[in-house]
Amino acid sequence: MNVVIVRYGEIGTKSRQTRRWFENILMNNIREALVSEEIGFKKVEAKHGRVLVRTNKANEAVEVLTRVFGIVSLSPAMEVEAEMEKINKTALKLFRKKKRELGLEKPSFRVTARRITKEFPLKSPEIQAKVGEYILENEESRVDLHEYDIEVGVELMEGKAYIYVDKVRAWGGLPIGTQGKVVALLSGGIDSPVAAFLMMKRGVEVIPVHIYMGEQTLEKVRRIWNQLKKYHYGGKGELIVVKPKERERIIQKLKELKKDKYTCVFCKYMMVRNADRIAREFGAKGIVMGDSLGQVASQTLENMYIVSQASDLPIYRPLIGMDKEEIVGIAKKIGTFELSTLPEDEIPFIPKHPVIRGSWEEFRKLYRAIFGEEPRKKEC
Fold first, then answer.
1. Terminus of the chain with fewer CB atoms < 10 Å: N or C?
2. Threshold 0.90, pTM exceeds
């Protein structure tokens, strides 16, 4: 198997010039993924709505490339001259190999053919019939167009035929690097890594920022980011750790004012202030948070409104309408769930009864009492 057929989805809906730009970024990300995983390849090229990766390690390449955003599916394939005899023999060879892998004596199968370019004289249904007939004549099997064990695929373009028996689903989305940069606030929890992942899936380069809570939590977050980087081909963000100077002052003053119920809201507000500063340094166009509406006290509409005033930049909350089960499901699929459930440093300053529906006016008064100035108010 010397070729991997890479199929994309949304990229194909773009205008010709825009599509070519997206394709070039996707191919660069594919090359980066293969190089970083030390998988040798000869060439990566775009042809007629496909990207072809020429490599002698097709199966290993497929495993890595499923994590490159923008790719919808992949197939390790054999490339032969577009001649019916060669197509038949190659299809039979791959069919037999797949039959052995599945351990089936008389597998059902179907053949799907597509002429991407039209120079081949036979039409797609005729190619399907000939390949299917050849397999039936030479191998114990049966045709079933709906409940099949094996699908033999044939794609023809520019005088070549690409034959395959596997079609591996990938994440889809858009290639990282096509939609700019954002700062993602990463904690040691389950939610924020999933939020960062979903933004990456939409083609965004992520700059991960962790607000320091202790060495155990920091090590945990480093491991989470190392896992997320496996999906970040095309991005260059390294974990930025911020040790907030104002935290103890805020906690102490709120206790003196008997308003420690506002501690979590203040901490998140200051997190966003730090993220805002870093975003401007890196030219990022927004801040990503792992909030899910109503999940905890700091994630009510009222409290999120207060926190959002800390930056004029857009604050993206991709999990806002998800429940915990949905978020956990994604975390398990991307390999961050087990890391997020590891032990971390205890946070001693979380109040027993945090404010659920904070008041912006009361927050302003408390902020003035602590800092002697008005808090930032987002411009409309």
1. C
2. yes
